[in-house]
Amino acid sequence: MVMILVIALSGCAKPFWGGYGGTGLSREAFEAYVEQVFRFQNRLTNEVMLLSLRSDDLNQYNDIFLAEHEMHEICRPLNEYATKSMDDQNAGLLLMRRVERSVVPCEQAAQYVDLLLRHLY
After folding, report:
1. Residue 48, SS3 per DSSP
2. What's the superkingdom here (predicted)?
3. In 10 A of CB 91, how many CB atoms?
4. CA 67 to CA 72: how far, in whole Å?
5. What pLDDT sits at residue 2?
6. Between 19 and 65, whose confidence is greater?
7. Which of 11, 12, 66, 76 is most buried when burial is the number of CB atoms within 10 A of its CB?
8. Is residue 4 pLDDT above 60, yes or no?
9. How far is 97 from 99, CA to CA, in rounded Å?
10. CA distance 106 to 110
């Protein structure tokens, strides 16, 4: 699935100058970065889900749940693209451009969720 995402993003270039996304990376580096961010936020979603299953008092984790919800909103283009890739659907240029613009904020939101989770242990 992730490889499909990376391969399909190869057409997600910012033409003519400046590299890909807000990062200015080469295509290969940007593809690796997108894959890393996708895996990171996906892992955090799983951790938050497990956290909610392990506890009887979910109110103590409200900050984490809110941050995870915000991460999902910010990472929506990346997750939508991954879903379309898994279903062999054409994502289209507009979605690919949204992925380009959202990957850095997605990583930042994921880092915040990770920080909150690390403070639990």
Report:
1. helix
2. Bacteria
3. 21
4. 9
5. 53
6. 65
7. 12
8. no
9. 5
10. 6
